[in-house]
Design goal:
single chain; about 210 residues; mainly beta; Jelly Rolls; nine-stranded antiparallel sheet; about 10% helix
Length: about 210
């Protein structure tokens, strides 16, 4: 699967990263003052992970601060968990690239997932926080939920455990509720029809962001 190899140089991924960088100047709120303030921290780490911050590479460790515009990368057989604000948690699988494009603590956030897999989690009783996750396969609009997004059985899969979200790919949107999943075969393709995932597939997906 193209997304799984972050060194492949696939043109879709290059265009995605270029477009994501171009969006930096068009945010709904200013990053002045936010860039120097931590918006979260690393809570768990197995293996190696780095943050590209203002052109410098930082080796991440448990307790390390995270900032807006950090591009986080996990290594092979490496897994990272982080806490953003008071109530948002994310887990990243191996060889994952995630840009924290914007984040205003527990108010809103935008992330660019250019490779690998993640699990996003907010408590069921937490206030809803508009969140967007952009990928080369499509865009995920989050409405306070726990979900998986990443490689799954040869395709890019999105599965909702709790809450709901909207997946938009090839200008077609699908609304997912608890137990729902969709597949996107390749960048530029539309998402499949919403379907219930088997427990076996659900377990596989969530296990992919956890150390063995």
């Amino acid at each position: 699967m193209t997304m799984h190899n972050k060194r492949s140089g696939h043109p879709n991924r290059r265009r995605f990263l270029t477009a994501a960088a171009g969006c930096a100047g068009a945010l709904a709120f200013s990053r002045k003052g936010l860039a120097a303030d931590p918006i979260g921290s690393v809570t768990e780490l197995t293996g190696e992970a780095t943050a590209n911050r203002r052109g410098g590479l930082i080796e991440l460790q448990i307790g390390a601060d995270l900032m807006v515009r950090d591009l986080i990368r996990t290594g092979k057989r490496s897994f990272l968990a982080m806490r953003l604000g008071d109530q948002t948690s994310m887990r990243l699988g191996e060889e994952t690239e995630l840009l924290i494009d914007e984040y205003l603590a527990d108010v809103q956030g935008t992330f660019d997932l250019s490779n690998g897999a993640l699990v996003f989690d907010r408590p069921e009783d937490a206030p809803k926080m508009p969140t967007t996750v952009r990928t080369v396969f499509g865009q995920i609009g989050v409405r306070g939920t726990r979900f998986f997004a990443g490689p799954s059985r040869g395709v890019f899969g999105v599965f909702v455990e709790r809450g709901e979200l909207e997946v938009t790919a090839a200008d077609v949107s699908q609304l997912l509720r608890p137990g729902d999943g969709v597949d996107i075969a390749e960048p530029g393709a539309a998402a499949s029809q919403v379907a219930k995932w088997s427990q076996e597939r659900i377990d596989e997906a969530f296990a992919s962001v956890e150390p063995n």
